[in-house]
Amino acid sequence: MGAYSDIRQAAETKFNTDWASATQAFFAKENATPPNDAAWVRMGINYSETTQKSMGTSANIHRKTGLIWIQIFTPSPDNSSDFSPAYDDELTQKAADIFASQSITIGTSRIVCRDETINNIGQTGAWFQTNVTVPFYYDEVK
């Protein structure tokens, strides 16, 4: 497998394990139907740039960077009496804690995650949306 696939699979596995059954969870590359009346999350990765960090005759380090993102959807105040800012905050904290300042080992390398950014999108249709993003880098030797 290639580095991008390895990164995605490692991040999805960590998320699946650590999120457990907090809510229904989906991944960006899966075709899924979220619930109509309960909180849910979607997780994915956006890749940024790759830069060569070393120069040699055989193996060189190529640093791949990107963002792990988690979108949290809770029923919006206008569409549900169940909306709770505290519950949204709880899910946001849980999502941030999974990746922020963590590392994920992949073979002899690892994904190194930085601190999180929280962005309250607000109400979008029937949902209150909060986004958690965590920048990362991964050094590939090739």
**Count of strand segments:** 7
DSSP summary: helix tally: 2
User: Under CATH, the topology is which?
Assistant: STM4215-like
Mean pLDDT: 90
The rough form would be described as elongated
CA radius of gyration: 17 Å
Q: Give the SSE string.
A: HEEEHEEEE
Secondary structure: elements and pairs:
Blueprint: H1 3-19, E1 24-27, E2 40-52, E3 61-75, H2 85-99, E4 103-106, E5 109-113, E6 117-124, E7 127-141
Parallel strand pairs: 1-2
Antiparallel strand pairs: 2-3, 3-7, 4-5, 5-7, 6-7
Helix pairs in contact: 1-2
Describe the model.
The structure is a single chain. By secondary structure, this protein is α+β, with helices and mostly antiparallel strands. It has one domain: STM4215-like. 23% of the residues lie in helices and 45% in strands. The chain has helices at residues 3-19, 85-99; strands at 24-27, 40-52, 61-75, 103-106, 109-113, 117-124, 127-141. Strands 1, 2, 3, 4, 5, 6 and 7 form a seven-stranded mixed β-sheet that branches. Helix 1 packs across helix 2. The mean pLDDT is 90.
Summarize the structure.
The protein has 2 helices and 7 strands; from the N terminus they run αβββαββββ. It is α+β, with helices and mostly antiparallel strands.
